[in-house]
Design goal:
Elements lengths: L14 E10 L3 E10 L2 E5 L11 E4 L4 E4 L4 E5 L5 E5 L3 H27 L12 H47 L4 H76 L25 H7 L2 H5 L5 E5 L26 H7 L31 H4 L30 E5 H6 L6 H8 L3 H14 L10 E3 L6 E6 L5 E9 L4 E8 L3 E13 L4 E6 L2 E5 L5 E4 L3 E5 L7 E12 L5 E6 L12 E7 L5 E8 L3 E15 L5 E7 L3 E5 L15 H6 L15 H7 L3 H28 L18 E5 L6 E5 L3 H7 L10
Parallel strand pairs: 8-24, 9-10
Antiparallel strand pairs: 1-2, 1-7, 2-3, 3-4, 5-6, 6-7, 11-12, 12-13, 13-14, 14-15, 14-16, 15-18, 16-17, 17-19, 18-19, 19-20, 20-21, 21-22, 22-23, 23-24, 23-25, 26-27
Length: 773
């Protein structure tokens, strides 16, 4: 477990080894590789990460080291960072404590010396403009002087060696002399060479003295400069860590919990409670150990199936519901091949030519701070918003305009852009195949949000929107705003091709100063007429990032369970939150289709802004444990096939709010629609035409009219003696085309279409509609 170290490591040496670091109450202690060097304690997930990824660093010069028990100890620098550590044994803990105390003492001593020295050296970072250039020039000059002194020392050394050898030879010759006459000459030579040796030695001593003096005079200044660089590095690392933690807070805002539950452990989308954390909240709780938490490992792995599954005879095709399949046929062909009663596709001619452009959006700049300071921490649906204003429902924008000329009811109707997926699902005989299409339809509804950073108009109470595509696509859709506080809309769509879609969506939104979170409430249901399969699911959380600084961008994250209440089939979809540190593709979505017994049949994968693919599972097995100790399932699958792909945006979409082809037609004027239809809303029409001032004035008029109508409705309810007091509440509005009922299949209470709208349209009788515009 831990590397063997001497009991008292040298304080200047690097000390390394494995320790267990506390993360949170879910994960507990996790094994990490720690490195103690130069008064800094750093840790890594593995030894291989030492060259590129440091998970955290604490400066021992300002840290407190506390022993808790035989194996546990705590290192804290006063609140900003706290490490709860555990060694494998008491001996190992004592070795670490000794090394840490020695390193701390040395770091404190060096810091004190650095503070006392170098007063003549201004603390100017090397990169600070002209001051950095002067420092670099001074250092280069000193280095040149020291190099010159070293060269002098080298020359003196050569001369000492030369003259010393000559002197040695002379002394040897002197010892061998016999004649007195030769003695005088040799003594003279020895005296001369001894003099040269003394002169050279003195020169060597002087050069050494000069070098030592020069080195001493600059050493303290260099220590001060080095410490300044170290402090700046630590400050930059701490700043980067804080920014990374803030980013992780944004990512975790969707999930509402420190750790996501395992696959299928929570079949309903509810709130996930966070886990309390031991120690300083800013350390492990804030980042769950930050770098550890963001790498959310996949809970299953897909590998190509055994070739034997691809060699089956084509005569054995019974759709993908059988145990075999062909990897060279598309999903549509295999699905529809199993249904001999499926009619041939009809070539529908458009009944009318619809528009392909709208006026370009204007470019207005607004002062955000005057808006945001009144929004922080509030429920956004209760904040009055002018046309140019901010932060409602799904989206926001940092500058220019904050709205788009569509209402929330029209945005809700955009879910039907890929209705052909439901058309194909209605033709499937096998419920598992049908589930794949319904899951793909669920993901496709988010494809329009990737660039749509404009806020849709908040519908007025009683406002409606119809989308009649019976002649073109075979469906009709109706939306109505059924509640104002909280805002809620009901939606009903039926198709001649055998499916009905209904949903009731209410939105809870919070602006926290750095990001905007939108939590959709309510559910969506889809019923297929032929099979009587009844599906239901909920929406994931939408988050708008970079509200204050940077380019605005939108992310979808969370989990969806698409449930077939008739058969018990289930598709668990996971929308992975975007992470700067993840190696996966952005906006990734994965899912597994299982039957009522929990057996997996299909794997879905792709991105919510581009396309989805499916793979039929031929065999599954339990694989090796992942990085966090979780056992992952390995699915052997056939070759992946595309089941849905996003339609390209029209030309010039960036100047038309990034509307899709369907969105461009939603606010197009039509004859015969109800007087409460969103197309008749005057402020929305003025905004589309670019008349912002008039649109803002008109919006204020409509909102004041709605408030007056609400007060009048309250007074009338109070006057009625037979009505209980609670029923007189102004929010107890009775929708015109929808009624609240309990669904016997899903057990949910929601507004369901009660009929009458299309009959009223055919007769042109709208006398029952309120005057809201």
């Amino acid at each position: 477990m831990s590397e063997l170290k001497p009991p008292t490591p040298t304080p200047g040496d690097t000390y390394k080894g494995w320790l267990f670091k506390w993360t949170n109450y879910i994960k507990g202690y996790q094994r990490r590789w720690f490195v103690l060097s130069n008064g800094l304690l750093s840790y890594y997930r593995t030894q291989a990460e030492m060259g590129h990824t440091c998970r955290g660093t604490i400066n021992l010069a300002t840290a407190n080291i506390t022993v808790e028990d035989s194996c546990n100890f705590v290192i804290s620098n006063g609140g900003a960072q706290t490490y709860h550590l555990k060694a494998s044994s008491e001996v190992e803990r004592q070795r670490w404590i000794t090394a840490l105390e020695l390193a701390k003492a040395k770091a404190v001593h060096m810091q004190a010396e650095s503070d006392e020295s170098g007063d003549d050296c201004p603390e100017v970072p090397p990169s600070s403009g002209q001051g950095g250039g002067c420092r670099n020039s001074e250092i280069q000059s000193t280095l040149r002087t020291l190099t010159s002194k070293v060269e002098d020392l080298s020359t003196c050394n050569d001369l000492i060696v030369k003259h010393g050898s000559a002197l040695q030879r002379s002394l040897s010759e002197l010892e061998g002399l016999r004649a007195v006459g030769d003695m005088g000459e040799k003594v003279r030579q020895v005296t001369e060479r001894a003099t040269l040796f003394r002169i050279t030695s003195n020169a060597m001593i002087n050069a050494c003295r000069d070098f030592l003096s020069l080195a001493q005079s600059h050493s303290k200044r260099w220590q001060k400069a080095l410490q300044t660089e170290r402090d700046q590095k630590i400050r930059l690392e701490e700043t980067l860590e804080q920014l990374a933690k803030q980013h992780n807070h944004l990512e975790r805002a969707f999930r509402g919990a420190t750790v996501l539950p395992p696959l299928f452990s929570n079949p309903t989308l509810g709130t996930k409670g966070g886990a309390s954390v031991k120690g300083d909240a800013s350390d492990e709780d804030d980042d769950n150990e930050f770098f550890d938490a963001i790498e959310d490992p996949a809970e299953f792995i897909t590998v190509p199936a055994d070739p034997k599954y691809h060699r089956r005879s084509g005569s054995n095709i019974s759709g993908l519901s059988s145990e075999t399949g062909l990897d060279d046929q598309s999903f549509d062909e295999l699905s529809l091949a199993s249904n001999p009663e499926s009619p041939q596709p009809l070539e529908l001619e458009p009944v009318r030519q619809r528009r392909t452009r709208i006026p370009d959006k204007p470019n207005y700049y607004l002062n955000l701070w005057s808006i945001m300071k009144n929004c922080i921490g509030k429920e956004l649906s209760k904040i009055p918003m002018p046309v140019q204003n901010l932060f409602l429902y799904h989206f926001a924008l940092f500058k220019v305009n904050f709205n788009e000329p569509l209402s929330m009811l029209q945005r809700l109707s955009e879910d039907l852009e890929y209705c052909e997926l439901l058309d194909k699902a209605a033709k499937c005989h096998n419920s598992l195949e049908q589930m794949c299409y319904v899951a793909a339809f669920t993901v496709s509804s988010y494809s329009t949000t990737v660039h749509r950073t404009g806020k849709p108009f908040n519908p007025l109470l009683g406002e409606t929107f119809e989308l009649d595509r019976l002649g073109e696509c075979g469906y009709r859709s109706l939306c109505e705003q059924v509640s104002h506080h909280p805002p809620a809309a009901a939606h009903h769509a039926f198709s001649e091709k055998g499916w009905t879609l209904r949903q009731e969506i209410a939105l809870a939104s919070k602006f926290r100063g750095k990001y905007l979170s939108i939590m959709p409430l309510g559910s969506i249901q889809c019923i297929f007429e032929k099979s009587n399969n009844h599906y239901s699911w909920k929406k994931v959380t939408t988050t708008v990032h970079n509200i204050i600084v940077g380019k605005l961008w939108i992310d979808q994250s969370g989990e969806i369970d698409v449930v077939n209440h008739k058969t018990g089939d289930r598709c668990h979809l996971k929308f992975a939150p975007y992470s700067y540190f993840s190696r996966d593709v952005p906006r990734k979505v994965t899912g597994v289709v299982t039957d009522k017994d929990g057996k997996a049949h299909y794997v879905l994968s792709g991105t919510w802004d581009e396309k989805m693919e499916f793979s039929r599972i031929m065999q599954s097995s339990k694989g090796e444990n992942g990085t966090e100790g979780k056992q992952r399932t390995v699915y052997q699958t056939l070759k992946a096939k595309e089941i849905w792909k996003k339609n390209p945006l029209p030309e010039g979409a960036e100047s038309m709010y990034y509307f899709s082809m369907l969105a461009l037609t939603l606010n197009e004027p039509e004859e015969g629609v109800a007087p409460t239809d969103s197309r008749r809303r005057p402020d929305q029409r003025l905004m589309e035409e670019g008349h912002w001032d008039e649109a803002n004035a008109e919006k204020q008029r409509l909102e004041e009219k709605q408030r007056s109508t609400r007060r009048e409705r309250e007074r009338e309810a109070v006057k009625a003696v037979s009505i209980p007091e609670e029923a007189a509440h102004p929010d107890n509005y009775q929708a015109l085309w929808f009624e609240k009922t309990d669904d016997p299949v899903s057990g949910e209470t929601m507004h369901v279409y009660k009929g009458g709208y299309w009959e009223a349209k055919d007769q042109g009788d709208w006398h029952m509609c309120p005057d809201i515009f």
